Amino acid sequence: MSTHIGAAPDQIAPYVLMPGDPYRARWIAETFLEDPVLYNDVRGMLGFTGTYRGVRVSAQGSGMGQPSLGIYAHELFAEYDTHAIIRVGTCGGLSEKVKVRDVILGVAASTDSAMNRPRFGDVTFAPAADFELMRIAAEVAEERLLPMVTGGLFSSDQFYNPNSTIASTLAGYGVLGVEMEAAALYTLAAQFSRRALAVCTVSDHLLTGEETSSQERQETFEDMIVMALETIVRLDGGAS
Ligand code: HPA
Description:
By secondary structure, the protein is of the alpha/beta class. It is 35% helix and 28% strand.
């Protein structure tokens, strides 16, 4: 057991899908995993382990924002020997290069968070995705004809951002979508020398005001989960 995860070490798989919403973790487990077992309900942050095409996989909620995700990702890497975490979430589109329902594979994550200040002082660390995970995910997305885009994410501490110009500034630097967790995930994966990737469907668009219906969100989310699970199967079968 770790402080926030009430599981024995062998109850969590080496590969973890991490949605923000704990009910999504349950939905992933019940929809896609064989023999899912609940291993955590501390603070309602549900975690399940089952198998997908013969590979053990866990689905663990992270909660919203980098401090919350940071707790779960840290404990998984530090105390459960998790090899890889794929964050599966939604983001707001920032750039005209993306439209709602696209799936962004987050190459890197800029942030307005101060979370890394105690780690690096004046140095600005560049949180980046694991290349191998990213390469496999891009391959799988292409094969499955998913509307995939690769590029930067903005991990903001503010869902309701009082800075009305930051989105367009970042879009001008190639950042595609805004969410609230990827930078902390990438930083922790780097700290523990593990693999991480954030994949996000564009649920709404800050430039166009376009939004997806809940039906569309569900369908796109489903496609993205299958892509993430197939990525894990391929990683398990090949990479070190
Ligand atoms: N901001 C932050 N996170 C999000 C957004 C957004 O607009 N949309 C989906 N996740």
